[in-house]
Structure formats: structure tokens, C-alpha cells
Design the sequence.
């Protein structure tokens, strides 16, 4: 009986610590990144959207899924070779997960196409990040 009680307490403690870890991760990502909804293409119409956070650095933007237990990013977008190839408003059932003010941007990057759904400020930040990259002609060859 004593061993069974000890095992139950240990299991409960591990579950509680895991839950606290997940909650802290989600909170940290929400505070330190730009909120986004993303889907990789090709995808069925109005399906495949994932909520997450973008974090920018000089050479890439990292996407962290809020519902993932992965420690690192779920997806990275390199600054070089990424282009915005289209824009649209949400449509159909996408309004179930997006507000009317959201802008959906289609990008082409070396790993394939994707659609990113941004609030206005997030779209401005993403465009500024892409457009401020140095021209390849100005880069010194090593």
C-alpha cells in the first residue's frame, strides 16, 4: 500500500510539473513574439491553420506552435529567398479562427509556399523585416 501511494504521488507530481512547464512555455512565447496563424501549402481549402508565435532575428524568422511540446521552432523562414507572392482577406470558415481585420499573406520560400495570417501590426513587422534585408550585391564575398 505504501509503495502504491508513493508511485501515485510521484506520477501526480510529474504531471503537475509537465503542465506548469507547458503553461510557462506558452506564456513566454506569447509575450516575446508576434502572434500569427500559419498553414503550409498545399492544403485543403480553409484547413491546416496553426496558431503560434513568430520570433525574428537577422537571418530567419522562427515559428513556434503554441500547442507543441517541441523545445525549438516548428518552422523557420530564411530571410534570403523569401518573397510575398499574394494577399487576401480571410474567407469562409476561416472567420471562425480569424478576425475580419486579419490579412492573409502567401509567401514563397526555399522550403515551399505557406500562408501567414497577421494582424495589421504583425504584417507591417514581417514586411519591414523582409524589405530591410541587404541586397545580395552589397554582401562582401568571403
Sequence:
Amino acid at each position: 500500500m505504501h509503495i502504491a501511494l508513493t508511485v501515485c504521488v510521484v506520477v501526480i507530481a510529474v504531471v503537475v510539473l509537465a503542465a506548469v512547464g507547458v503553461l510557462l512555455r506558452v506564456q513566454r512565447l506569447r509575450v516575446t513574439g508576434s502572434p500569427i496563424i500559419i498553414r503550409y501549402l498545399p492544403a485543403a481549402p480553409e484547413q491546416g491553420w496553426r496558431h503560434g508565435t513568430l520570433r525574428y532575428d537577422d537571418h530567419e524568422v522562427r515559428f513556434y506552435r503554441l500547442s507543441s511540446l517541441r523545445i525549438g521552432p516548428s518552422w523557420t523562414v530564411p530571410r534570403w529567398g523569401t518573397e510575398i507572392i499574394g494577399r487576401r482577406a480571410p474567407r469562409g470558415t476561416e472567420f471562425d479562427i480569424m478576425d475580419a481585420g486579419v490579412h492573409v499573406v502567401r509567401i514563397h520560400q526555399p522550403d515551399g509556399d505557406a500562408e501567414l495570417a497577421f494582424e495589421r501590426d504583425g504584417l507591417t513587422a514581417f514586411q519591414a523585416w523582409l524589405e530591410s534585408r541587404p541586397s545580395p550585391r552589397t554582401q562582401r564575398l568571403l
